[in-house]
Amino acid sequence: MNKPRLYSGMQPSADSLQVGNYIGALMQWRELQQSYEAFFSVVDLHALTQPNDPAELREKTRRTAAQYIAAGIEPSKSTLYVQSHVPAHAELAWVLSTVTGFGEAGRMTQFKDKSQRYGSDATSVGLFTYPVLMAADILLYQTDIVPVGDDQKQHVELTRDLAERFNARFGTTFQVPMPVIQQDTARIYDLQNPTAKMSKSAESDAGVLWLLDDPAVSAKKIMRAVTDSDGTVRYDRENKPGVSNLLVIFAALTGRQIPAIEDEFAGRGYGDFKKALAEVVTEEFGPVRARALEMLDDPAELDRVLAVNAAKAAEVADATLADVYDKVGLLRRV
Ligand code: AQP
To answer: 293 — phi, psi (to 5°)?
Structure first.
């Protein structure tokens, strides 16, 4: 029997992924690839909605792919590819844009937030149609589930609406996907500002733990992480956001329950707890970092793996696109 399908991706928007990407996405992907036919993309077309240096974007794309593999995404089991290597993404996005309402796209809160932040002159049409491209990414693979953070839930809802609308108008074409939303504890916050999510594009580097950081640098960031004056290692998201965030990272990386960690550090100071967390982080990311850097030393081999996987992805994507072109009435090329 065929396995159900899963699609997810990340933008190559930094030289390294951060610990939130690892705990919130990569760890789940690694697990889910065992029971799903998984498609994991480095969504470089999405990254174009932000200003980029072209050479740097290429480098970040390779780095992101290398970190997927180093973190345990198996390119022989899952289809791990670069979005722009499969032209069907951009082509389906165009067709879907013709069934998307202008008002509907304008209601996307991420667009509203970002466009307000950038101002209308710096806001591109690409940023506006970003969710339509995301819908194309998902629908091309007849995806059953999309694991996303709650910030992306609205985009998956739009994807579902577009799939249902297209199916109703042109006959069943797309699987209608379900979002799988991470639990609250899978959200990692900035070490210096523990009420804001840890993010690749954070303004300050001090609050972000990068996967490719030197362990000594990560340890220093953890030792300097914002806590509180209460002195007890206890989970209380509301009153102790800094310590709670560190506990969530500790628990996620060790597979332990938070109460057991609280017990271990009862009566001990934050210094001890932070030191132990720095060791956990070093142990987890040391091998990931080494493996990613090793792959980046041989970009030709990495490019080869990505090309093989792009061909696998294109096989599925092209079949969906051909069906869509047919359904909407485009003349078949002979
Ligand atoms: N802090 C986080 N905690 C848990 N999960 C997180 N993710 C991101 N940050 C956290 C998850 O990682 C994936 C990355 O998706 P993305 O690269 O498309 O963009 P994003 O969600 O906007 O991530 P960043 O790191 O904040 O990137 P920038 O700064 O470029 O926007 C998603 O699955 C996300 O839920």
So the answer is: -65, -35
